[in-house]
Design brief:
The protein is an alpha/beta fold and about 425 residues long. The chain contains 11 helices and 20 strands. The strands form 5 sheets. A 10-stranded mixed β-sheet has the order 9-7-5-2-10-1-11-15-19-20, sandwiched between helices. Strands 14, 16, 17 and 18 form a 4-stranded mixed β-sheet that branches. A two-stranded antiparallel sheet has the order 3-4. Strand 16 and strand 17 form a beta hairpin. Helix 3 packs across helix 4. It is globular and about 65 Å long.
């Protein structure tokens, strides 16, 4: 039997590592690209042929003609936002209806989930976690409490099921004292149009489809959203997302057995960013942090929010490499550091008792980063086409990272375009 393989691509930091571009670069090697968790709170930006696209729920392999793209059971889907995203792509000449398959078991984000998201966040006061307000958390909460609506439910007696969920949410909102429903009828009407639009796509038992593809010798790339440090179990809890963003999430989010996983591509930036609240040990509050933000255009693809910026955190990255079983590292935005005299990397944490550790502790709120300094390469690398062109200082930086993380850096990105990618191994 000619079994195919399942490779996983995911972020190793707090999201926004540049996964969309890398999936687009890697997809020629694969027959199927599948999203396994998250929702429209995550935006994957891709740039090629002078066009810029932001994908929220649709897998990044959609730009490769003939590839099957799957939205897996671990994803939460907002029909109205999905409709906007898909119609934008169709208008720009990308046919989706036959190539994009949607799991019956993916959960639906209801209009009332978004209101609940805002109401629950407001009720937290100063303890806000910085949610995007897209209804992701309440949808996963309904999933876990066995009250959710799934894509497969739209195929039979949907209105009855929808009304029951909606009324349950309204009761919860009343208990929270929430009374802001401005524009709800319009949102709900568009959401229902989104439901009808969804029916134009193949709605499938995705776990069977994926395993049939494997048995037929097809290769599958699983695309993660957000980053390892936003994982609900292993991230910087409670400032995390509501799903498993780690490699194991591909198994539960698609119905793939662990022994089918082959390569695990872990994506990191040459520095570090974070959006919203939560601990960030290497965060820079000075002009250097602002300079990284401006040079890297560090603003959210979906929210437009300013990202917090800091030096690369190798303690955190080593933890992510361990949890995910990373086989290949991919470093993004190396070019953003082209102009700096000095580059820093966090190699240990100093704890409150004065001791140092290279293992990520239970709480990272008040650790002090211990930095190693590197001489900057002061070279514009954006036009390079081969690693032989790298300045010595940059090569030294790469080799240090590989030694510290005990994992090869296989791909280095030196700009936003698809072509600005150097494959090393």
């Amino acid at each position: 039997m000619n079994n195919g393989r399942v490779d996983v691509l995911l972020g190793l930091q707090w999201g926004d590592e540049g996964k969309g571009k890398v999936v687009d670069v890697l997809t020629p090697r694969y027959d199927v690209v599948a999203r396994f968790q998250g929702g429209p709170n995550a935006g994957h930006t891709l740039e090629f042929q002078g066009q810029k696209y932001v994908l929220r729920s649709i897998p990044s392999g959609i730009f490769q003609g003939g590839k099957v793209n799957i939205i897996g059971n671990g994803v939460v889907l907002a029909p109205d936002l999905f409709m906007d995203e898909a119609q934008d792509l169709e208008r720009s000449g990308h046919e989706l209806k036959h190539r994009l398959h949607i799991s019956k078991k993916a959960h639906l984000i209801l209009p009332t989930h978004r209101i609940l998201d805002r109401a629950l966040e407001a009720a937290k006061g100063k303890a806000k976690v910085g949610t995007t307000g897209k209804g992701i958390g309440p949808t996963y909460t309904d999933k876990v409490s066995r009250n959710g609506l799934r894509v497969g439910d739209i195929l039979s007696d949907f209105e009855t099921k929808y009304e029951a969920c909606k009324q349950r949410h309204m009761t919860m909102l009343k208990a929270l004292g929430w009374n802001d429903f401005e524009g709800f009828d319009e949102v709900e009407a568009k959401w229902m149009r989104g439901i009808e639009y969804l029916k134009q796509f193949p709605i499938v038992d995705s776990e069977h489809e994926i395993n049939r593809a494997l048995r037929a010798g097809k290769n599958i790339l699983c695309e993660g959203a957000q980053g390892t440090m936003l994982d609900v179990d292993f991230g910087s809890y409670p400032f995390v997302t509501s799903s498993n963003t780690i490699c194991a999430g591909a198994c539960t989010g698609l119905g793939v057995a662990p022994n089918k996983i082959g390569k695990v591509f872990g994506i990191m930036k040459a520095y570090c960013t974070r959006v919203g609240a939560g601990p960030f040990p290497t965060e820079l509050f000075d002009s250097t942090g602002k300079r990284i933000r401006d040079l890297g255009h560090e603003y959210g693809a979906v929210t437009g929010r300013e990202r917090r910026c800091g030096w690369i955190d190798l303690v955190q990255l080593r933890y992510s490499v361990m949890i995910d079983g990373v086989t290949d590292l991919i470093m993004m935005k190396s070019d953003v550091l082209d102009q700096f005299d000095t580059i820093k990397a966090c190699v240990a944490y100093k704890l409150k008792d004065g001791t140092e550790t290279t293992e990520l502790p239970y709480e990272i709120d008040d650790v002090e980063p211990v930095f190693k300094e590197f001489k900057g390469w002061k070279t514009d690398m954006t036009r390079f086409t081969d690693e032989s062109q790298f300045p010595q200082e940059f090569s030294d930086y790469i080799h240090f990272l590989e030694d510290f993380l005990e994992t090869p850096i296989s791909i280095i990105s030196i700009g936003p375009d698809r072509d600005q990618t150097i494959v090393r191994h």
